[in-house]
Backbone:
């Protein structure tokens, strides 16, 4: 094959594209119930938008970014995630201004790019559905965000979900914890992987997230963030847990969970699924948390934020068989069969009028014999077949067959409008 798609990308073909539309439509409906509105931001941004936000020691920035200098010499990157661009837009368009109702709640969906090793549910061009809420420090909004992610997945009948939460505390908690981690890890310095050696002093929390087996063994006994929380941070986390309890949501606290992006503090969470088509063990489909300070980092005022991102490709692998079959099955309202060259104008008009009445209508485009046209109507699962031959044309009528009951009747061309209630 001469041309192939780049490694780690996918073509989304019909009828599978219907599953995408279904998921996107459900997301829009769910988020609207929580009063979120859509935001669309560029697919590429200045490199610094991501390096300042995701953190310059994160894998995403150091290893996975699709970045390049454009013809004007600007350092550009394809977005590896949605939050940074949304925060940049929030600041640039002053959405923090008094005319905007707080919290400002937005959602987005679209392609993201990370240079990763492709595998099932992991691509280089992948798609996220994400939400962000700005301007509230209340634990309520952390919980609302989590609930919205859970609601959405439940609406799509994804089963076996596991909610895992943790807190990274506020800046003071983090500073204390950082020092404790460095003190713990320093004696192990020589045993650490090269990545972790480089990160130990710059960002020791990254070491906790290392994929290296030996690093993982070392951090098993590392101190836990929960022992270093300030009173405020503790209070915030307790409220989040209490509210989840009030809503009857099951969750697990994993005090060793850190996220792959550096902008988080306070609540972080992941919605995972165990031993699914995504793979053995827990795989995360939806992840997010609070990021107070990020708006300031990108040049805005002190406004807090919280949100999540959900991997669409992963979600699609989890749709149940029934949903998939329903979405992929074809159904046409009308197929219009024309017999002979002379009737083509009538066919043209009937097809046009049926579409004007909002019926999904098909016809033959290949000058095929009636038998082949009837076969197509069958294949496309048409509910009704209209037939126009020369005698029908002369009588200014057409034949209408109900494919379900087998009933056939004759309808005057001038009365085609009476069909408009047919499928109600
Ligand atoms: P993230 O954890 O990097 O967070 O990504 C969120 C989700 O995107 C993952 O749980 C996964 O389902 C999906 N995902 C990530 N990388 C890939 C990939 N290479 N292929 C397929 N799916 C992938 C964020 O991106 C944050 N912006 C989430 C957020 C929003 N936090 C606050 N607001």
Residues:
């Amino acid at each position: 094959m001469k041309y192939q798609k780049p490694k780690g990308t996918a073509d989304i073909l019909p009828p599978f594209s219907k599953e995408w539309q279904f998921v996107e439509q459900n997301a829009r409906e769910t988020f609207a119930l929580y009063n979120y509105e859509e935001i669309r931001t560029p697919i590429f941004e200045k490199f610094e938008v991501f390096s300042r936000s995701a953190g310059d020691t994160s894998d995403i920035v150091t290893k996975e970014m699709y970045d390049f200098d454009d013809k004007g010499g600007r350092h550009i990157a394809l977005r590896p995630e949605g939050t940074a661009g949304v925060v940049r837009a929030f600041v640039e368009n002053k959405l923090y201004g008094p005319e905007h109702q707080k919290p400002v709640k937005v959602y987005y969906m679209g392609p993201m790019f990370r240079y990763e090793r492709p595998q099932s549910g992991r691509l280089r061009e992948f798609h996220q559905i994400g939400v962000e809420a700005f301007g509230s420090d209340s634990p309520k909004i952390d919980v609302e965000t989590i609930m919205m992610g859970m609601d959405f997945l439940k609406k799509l009948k994804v089963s076996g979900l596991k909610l895992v939460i943790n807190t990274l505390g506020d800046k003071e908690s983090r500073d204390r914890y950082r020092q404790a981690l460095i003190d713990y890890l320093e004696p192990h310095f020589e045993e650490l992987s090269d990545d972790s050696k480089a990160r130990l002093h710059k960002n020791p929390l990254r070491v906790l997230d290392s994929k290296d087996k030996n690093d993982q063994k070392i951090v098993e006994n590392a101190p836990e963030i929960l022992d270093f929380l300030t009173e405020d941070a503790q209070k915030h986390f307790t409220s989040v847990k209490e509210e989840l309890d009030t809503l009857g949501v099951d969750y697990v606290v994993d005090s060793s969970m850190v996220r792959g992006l550096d902008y988080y503090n306070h609540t972080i969470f992941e919605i995972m699924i165990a031993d699914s088509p995504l793979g053995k063990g827990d795989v995360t489909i939806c992840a997010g948390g609070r990021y107070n300070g990020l708006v300031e980092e990108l040049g805005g005022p002190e406004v807090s934020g919280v949100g999540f991102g959900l991997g669409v490709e992963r979600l699609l692998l989890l749709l149940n068989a029934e949903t998939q079959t329903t979405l992929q099955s074809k159904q046409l309202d009308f197929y219009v069969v024309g017999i002979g060259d002379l009737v083509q104008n009538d066919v043209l008009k009937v097809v046009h009028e049926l579409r004007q009445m909002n019926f999904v209508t098909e016809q033959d485009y290949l000058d095929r014999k009636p038998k082949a046209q009837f076969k197509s109507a069958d294949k496309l699962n048409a509910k009704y077949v209209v037939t126009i031959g020369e005698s029908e044309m002369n009588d200014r009528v057409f034949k209408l067959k109900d494919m379900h009951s087998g009933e056939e009747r004759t309808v005057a061309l001038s009365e085609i409008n009476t069909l408009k209630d047919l499928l109600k």
